[in-house]
Amino acid sequence: MSEQGRTIESVRRANLGGILGIVHREGPQSRAALTEATGLNRSTIADLVGTLVTFGLVEERAPDPSHRVGRPSPMVAVHPRVVAIAVNPEVDALEIAAVGLDREIRAVVVLPQDAVLSPDDAARLVAEQVDTWRASELADARILGVGLAVPGLVRSDDGLVRDAPHLGWVDTPLRDIVAQATGLPVVVGNDATLGTLAEHLFGAARGIDQVVYLNGGASGIGGGIIVNGMPVLGAGGYAGEFGQNRPGIATLADRRARDGVLEDEVSRARLLAVVGLTRADDRELASALTSAAGTPSVAGEIDRQRRIIATALSNAVNVLNPSAIVLGGFLSVLAELDNDALVQAVRAQAMPACGEDLRILPAELAEHRLLIGAAESVFAEVLANPSPA
């Protein structure tokens, strides 16, 4: 192919990806809306949409009956059969979901675990679940791949899990292990980094260009950073490990772990223990904390953790000056017990100019935030370079 031919083809691929990205992020769009959004002419849009239909990535539907002025324009929507398998391994459960390119959760299972899974066991369970779904819910699906949101350090270029301390996975070639078990392309990322992506695209951080995200789960606290609308990954993909920072604790009586890091002090396990639970999802934890908030031991632990997280967040505010901090998991539970007071506590410890417009927001995607982020890591390839099945 000539240089000019390659240039024309690359422009066409970019335009195909642009249209697919719009209907993925914004939902069904009329051809007229796509024409306006892209600046391309109507015949070009018709040709590109036709190609995406041929690829099996979008479908055209009847025009929106609410738009009666002028010639009706067909609606272009992501094809519902296109999905990714999203996986979140935790110390107490393995969560697996089929997430559509249209952002619908096709199926989800949570497999509780009494012992921490090995990488091989996790891969086997994922493969078994995919096989089960292929015989039922996903019988007609086009599965693009598997995305894993792992609570630990993941090398971004090859999916090597350098250290997932709570899982005991060290220098684990997880991408290759899962790919061999499932026969599917695999992408591996840090769970909080992928949660940041999901919340920025579709959740509480949508439209906000300066964001700090912290996720609190069974394996501790991770985070992600958005600067000028772009994720900050770091040299190896390890940025955002807020949970491993040494917390500033003003009162010695507030310390629980000698020389502990933030996630040792601000801990889901400590909250569960103080309300007498061994296992609970975020909704159940929030209910238990609210019901027992008048108990001195529960109130004391809530206040202690909120004081420490406020100091940690104020440090992030001073360094990064975000417009918003988004909290997910049990951190969202802690914040929503009195969000205004937490905002004031953070501002009180931050430089006034850095914190004056700060908002603290709960993650909007709830328990699906990490799964949606994991699916997005798979969808990135087809959005960048749409291709037929």
From TrEMBL:
Keywords: Kinase, Transferase. One of its GO terms (molecular function) is kinase activity. The keyword Transferase applies. Belongs to the ROK (NagC/XylR) family. This is Putative NBD/HSP70 family sugar kinase. Transmembrane segments: none annotated.
